[in-house]
Amino acid sequence: MAGVISNVDRFRLLLGREREKLAPNAGRAARALEELYGRGRGEGSATDLDGGAGGGREASFPSAREWGDELEALFGESVREEVLGAAAERGRTAALLELDPDAVRPSIALLERVLSLQGGMPEAALGRLRQMIRRIVDELVKELAVRVAPALTGIVTPRPTRRPRGPLDLGRTVRANLEHASVRGDGSVVIVPEKLIFRTRQKRSMDWEIILVVDVSGSMEPSVIYSAMMAAILHAVPWVGVRFLTFSTEVIDLSEHVSDPLALLLEVKVGGGTHIAKALRHAQTLVRVPSRTLVIVVSDFEEGYPIDSLLAEVRALVESGVTPLGLAALDDTGKARFSSAIASLVAGAGMPVAALSPLELARWVGERIRAR
C-alpha cells in the first residue's frame, strides 16, 4: 500500500508538514509512523515545521499488536520489524514483545533493552525473549568476527619447511637453488630447483592468556556486551586462553562461559560501586606466565576506593612482566566515557588507557603478541 503514496505526500511524511493535505492512505502512514517518531521528529511528525498545523487529533493505537498489524499492512513485514525494533530500543516494552525473534534486526541497543527485562517478565514471555537474545547475540558475534578475525590471524610466525604442507616459499626456494642456475643462449637465466621450500605455521611452545577484567558497575551495559562478544571471538583462537572477570565492589570469575556469550551475559548483574584495585589483585593471582599474559581492564575508571591502591596494583602487574591495557567504557551511543584524571594516573603507572573499537582491540592484541 505504501507504493501508491504520491511523491508529494512522501515528502510531507518525511518533513512532517501540511498534514491536513495528506491523502487518506498517507494519513494512515503518518499515524502509524507517529507512534514511534512522535512530535516534530520527521516521518509522521504531528507538527508543521512552520508552526502551523499543530498536533493531530487521531487516537493512539490501543495496543502494540494493532500498531504492528497496521505497519505490516502499510509497509510490509520488513518495515514492521524495523519500526518495532526501533521502538523497543527506545524503551517500548510492548513493541519488544511483538517482534519476531527470527526477523528482528540485531543491534547493541536492542540487546541491552532485552537483557534489562530478564528479571521482570512472566515466564511465558521469557521464552520468547531468550530466543530473541540468542539470535541477536549470535548475529552480532558473527558480524563482529568478520571484522575482527583478520586482525587475529597470521600472528604466529611462518617458518620454512621442505615438507609440502603449505604454499611454496618462492624466495627461499630460489635462494636455495642458485647453484643450479644456467644461462641460455638468449641470455635468460633458468633455475631447475632440486629443493622445494614451503611455508608452514610455527607452533608456539606456550599459549597466550588474555584476562578480561570488566567493570559491571552502573551504566556499563554496552561495554559489558562488547566485552562478552570479544571474549567469545578471542576464545575461538586456538592458542589464546581467555579468562573473564566481572567486578563492581566484588569480583566474579565467569571464565567458564567465555565460549557462550549469551550464557555469560545472562550471568552478569550490572550495578554497584567500583573497586578496580581489588579486581586487578584477583587477576594477578590467575597469571601463570607473565610474559605471555595480557590483562585488559574495561572500565569508566571512576574508582570508588583509594587511588594509591589502584596505582600500586597496576605497578605490580607491570613489574611482574604482564602487559596491561585499560579500555575506556562506552556509553549508549558508543562513545568513550571515563574519568580522564584517573586514567592519566593509571597510564603513568604503566597501564595505557585508550578508547578502542573491537577491531582496534584485536589489532592491539595481535601487535603485542607479534612483539614477543
Describe the structure.
This protein is 46% helix and 14% strand. The chain is α/β, with parallel strands linked by helices and 372 residues long. The strands form 3 sheets. Strands 5, 6, 7, 8, 9, 10 and 11 form a 7-stranded mixed β-sheet that branches. The chain has a two-stranded antiparallel sheet with strand order 1-4. Helix 6 crosses helix 9 and helix 9 packs antiparallel against helix 10. About 6% of the residues have low confidence.
Provide the descriptors you would attach to this structure in a database record:
372 residues, seven-stranded mixed beta sheet
Question: What global shape is seen?
Answer: extended
Number of helices: 14
Structural class determined from secondary elements: alpha/beta
Binned, the helix content reads 40-55%
SSE ordering: HHHHHHHEHEEEEHEEHHEHEEHEH
- Characterize the largest beta sheet: strand count, sense, and whether it forms a barrel: 7 strands, mixed
Helices and strands in order:
Layout: H1 7-15, H2 24-37, H3 64-75, H4 77-89, H5 93-98, H6 108-116, H7 123-152, E1 158-161, H8 170-176, E2 181-183, E3 189-191, E4 198-201, E5 208-215, H9 221-235, E6 240-247, E7 251-253, H10 261-267, H11 276-286, E8 293-299, H12 307-320, E9 323-330, E10 336-337, H13 340-348, E11 353-354, H14 358-371
Parallel strand pairs: 5-6, 5-8, 8-9, 9-11
Antiparallel strand pairs: 1-4, 2-3, 6-7, 9-10
Helix pairs in contact: 2-3, 3-4, 4-6, 6-7, 6-9, 7-9, 7-14, 9-10, 11-12
